[in-house]
Amino acid sequence: MTRKKRRLILIAACGSVLALAVGLILFAMSGSIVFFKSPSEIEAQAIPSGTRLRLGGLVQDGSLKRGPDQTIDFAVTDHGATIAVQYKGLLPDLFREGQGVVAEGVLEPGNRFRADTVLAKHDESYMPREVADALKKQGRWQEGGPQGQAPAASASAGGTLGPRSER
Question: What pLDDT band is residue 166 in, cutting at 50, 70 and 90?
């Protein structure tokens, strides 16, 4: 066997082992991959009951109901469709009606969603108090900006942004 043929066989064997390893990794992860869907996508795609997914949207105003044993019922909407959600546990501090939320769980019959994790989202104009104070000290704070916040470009400009950036 020539050197060229041995090298070609070695490369083919390594490629086969690599392909097998990638296939095994993808197979092992298939049970833990969770897709993000909005209420409209769930209704349009007719996702079967028992499917694990992440539901994202806004907590519908007037839908929050607290029950016994930390059971919370609320509705998630994207203003096109609404899905009822049931969650048992403590809610994040930022959770409130009208606020963005991502709930991870299982879709049940009747377009009900049983969440085991709830994450509250803040809007893109959020800025930590320390950053806002530092921008005020630097004179880069714009009171007339959206919700009194400085634009994103100012936050990334040179200089320090307070005690946390010095670590």
Answer: very low
59 in any annotated domain: yes
Tally the C-alpha atoms within 13 A of residue 94's C-alpha that lie toward its C-beta: 12
Give 29's pLDDT tier (boundaries 50, 70, 90). confident
Which pLDDT tens digit goes with each residue over 96-107? 888 888 899 999
CATH number, domain with residue 48: 2.40.50.140
Q: Give strand ranges (E) for 46-164.
A: 52-59, 65-66, 71-77, 82-88, 100-108, 112-120
Distance CA 67, CA 78 (A): 25
Residue 149 DSSP label: P
Domain that holds residue 62: 35-120
Structural contact between residues 55 and 103, judged by C-beta atoms closer than 8 angstroms: yes
pLDDT at 159 > cutoff 60:
no
Domain count, the chain: 1
Q: What is the DSSP string of 40-77?
A: HHHHHHTPPTT-EEEEEEEEPTT--EE-STTEEEEEEE
The more confidently predicted of residues 160 and 129 is 129
